[in-house]
Amino acid sequence: MGKNITLSFGGGMEILFNNTKEREIELPDSVVNIKDLIAYMKDELLQERPELFVLNDSVRPGIIVLINNADWEIEGGLEYELEDDDEITFISTLHGG
Amino acid sequence: MSKEDLDRYSRQILMNNFNKDSQLKLLNTSVLIIGAGGLGSTAILYLGSAGFGRIGIVDNDVVEETNLHRQVIHDETKIGLSKAVSAQQTIKKLNSKCECYVYKLLLTSENALSVIKPYDIVIDATDNVCATYLINDACILTNKILIQASALRMEGQLSVFNYNNGPCYRCLNPIPPPAGTVTKCNVSGVLGVVPGIMGCFQAVEAIKIAAGLGANYSQKLLIYDAELGKVRVVKTRPKQENCSICGKNPSITSLIDYEDFCNMKKCTNPNMSKDRITVEEYNEILKVNKPHVLIDVRPKEAFQLSNLPNAINIPKLELSNNAQKIKDLLKKKAEEANVSEVPLYLICRSSATSLNSIPILKEQGNFKVSYIIGGLLEWKKKIDPSFQIE
Ligand SMILES: [Zn+2]
Q1: What is the rounded (10 degree) CA torsion for A21, A26, A29, A30?
Q2: pLDDT in tens, A36-46
Q3: Does residue B389 belong to any structural domain of this protein?
Q4: How far, rounded to the nearest angstrom, does the alpha carbon of residue B165 sit from its chain's CA centroid?
Q5: Per-domain residue ranges for chain A?
Q6: How far off is chain B from A92, nearest CA to CA, in Å?
Q7: Which UniProt keywords apply (chain A) (predicted)?
Q8: Are residues B163 and B52 located together in one domain of the fold?
Q9: Which residue, of B231, B265, B299, is where some domain finishes?
Q10: What chain A residue is nearest to B229 in terms of C-alpha separation?
Q11: Is B185 an annotated catalytic residue?
Q12: I need a labelling partner for A55 at 20 to 30 A (CA). Which of A27, B42, B46, B47 fits?
């Protein structure tokens, strides 16, 4: 059985994903790490304009990725292996004031 | 410390982890706030009242009516006035002892280092990505602590950089976002109080750093979402050895061209962009009868009082809804003149509104659009003294 994780969005990323800031999903077995997750989200969940989400098999610059509320860089980045109940967050950096 | 100061700051000094010495440290610390907008308004108000010895305010904009819902350091009487000067006036009334300097300029690669150098702490309260990279790099080169925040819609973000060997903005964001992915308050909107809250957080950080109590958000990112009522404080990566400005072998050793770096040739300096013409140039266009479309983006009431004879009135807030109408107008003009396309010019009272209208139009299509520098005030001054405008 696939893993269940929570996806959360912010900074405008939610607009690309059904305008929902939080959702739980069950992943297919083929999705093992964050790299797989990004590809899966692009193919199955993204509503429009993939260039606002992905660039060269990763997220585009300007998106903060959090793995259980920590910067994905300190958790292994694209190679991090997803576990049940993980919360993966995609937040666009804001530029306004 | 004087008796007067002891009294004035007594409620702050009463706290058991903030004493007379802490207050003295504030008096001996200087903070530079870059941007007197939504973030800067509350940051400046609290820093001015907290007892800092010296603050500096950098802003090149003038106060507009559409700013007032969030830029609470300004008020209706300040519309048209420099934001830096307006903020300074408020601080002088609030705390006459706080030395408050203003820089009515746009921070650029040429002036950033000299503006930042005399200050201990820098607050980035700007609204665009180029300025954020410029300020980050300038703070690394001058070794200043940077408190960076931003806000859009109902969300805010904040982090402290270059503090106690912590990361810088570039460590977290080595590559700027692609130009087309960034939106601003004048396009996406912003709930007024949200930048205010983030500006308050910036003030807390500055006070804690100055008083020696330590920053809360170094190597941490505060993410506030007023829609969900959620505050996240997340741990970020440490200082990166391969960072191009604060790393071991930095490739950036002096300030660069940030518009080029961010692929946005017009985002930090509107005066350098080609999206503008002078009133003299526009007068010439009229004289030679060069085909074009002129849109006056002021509110209807203002337009009805006085306008240029060939101007069409579409207020700024109605531009995106009328994008198709504008496209049709341009097409019709081009057909009449038998050319492939005609330019679109925007005018308003002082050019602040028309400048801010350009990104709205660009969101809606590939408009060849410029604004008229200085607007109708400049038109009255340089071309037609009889033109009715205040
Ligand atoms: Zn760095």
Answers
A1: -30
A2: 999 999 999 99
A3: no
A4: 28
A5: 3-92
A6: 9
A7: Cytoplasm, Isopeptide bond, tRNA processing, Ubl conjugation pathway
A8: yes
A9: B265
A10: A21
A11: yes
A12: A27
pLDDT, tens digit (0-9, with 9 covering 90-100), for B359-375: 888 888 888 899 999 99
Test A74 with B38 for CB contact under 8 angstroms: no
B246 is catalytic: no
Q: Are residues B28 and B121 in the same domain?
A: yes
Q: Contact B195/A62, CB-based, under 8 Å?
A: no
pLDDT < 70 positions in chain B: 265-274
- Chain A residues in contact with B184 by the CB 8 A cut-off are 95-96
Shared domain for B201 and B322, answered yes or no, is: no
Q: How far apart are CA A38 and CA A33, in angstroms?
A: 9
C-alpha closest to that of B60 among B352, B387, B388:
B352
- Indicate which CATH number applies to the domain containing B316: 3.40.250.10
Q: CA angle, corner B22, sides to B20 and B24, nearest 5?
A: 70
Same domain, B102 and B204: yes
Chain segment B202-245, per-residue pLDDT in tens: 999 999 999 999 999 999 999 999 999 999 999 999 999 999 99
**CATH assignment, A3-92:** 3.10.20.30
Q: Are residues B289 and B256 in the same domain?
A: no
Alpha carbon of B370 to ligand 1 centroid (Å): 37
* Identified catalytic residue from B130, B139, B185, B246: B185
| pLDDT cut 90: percent of chain B above it | 79
User: Do residues B114 and B235 share a domain?
Assistant: yes
Token pair belonging to B170: 């570039």
Our CA-based measurement puts residue B289 at a distance from the nearest CA of chain A, in whole angstroms, of 40
Cβ within 8 Å of residue B389, ≥6 positions away: B305, B306, B349, B376, B377, B380
Which pLDDT score is estimated for B267?
Answer: 45
**B91: alpha, beta or left? (left if phi > 0; alpha if psi -120 to 50):** alpha
Q: Measured between CA atoms, how close is B104 to chain A, in angstroms?
A: 18
Q: Are residues B167 and B53 in the same domain?
A: yes
Range of the domain at B358: 276-383
From chain A, the residues in CB contact with B176 under 8 A are 61-62
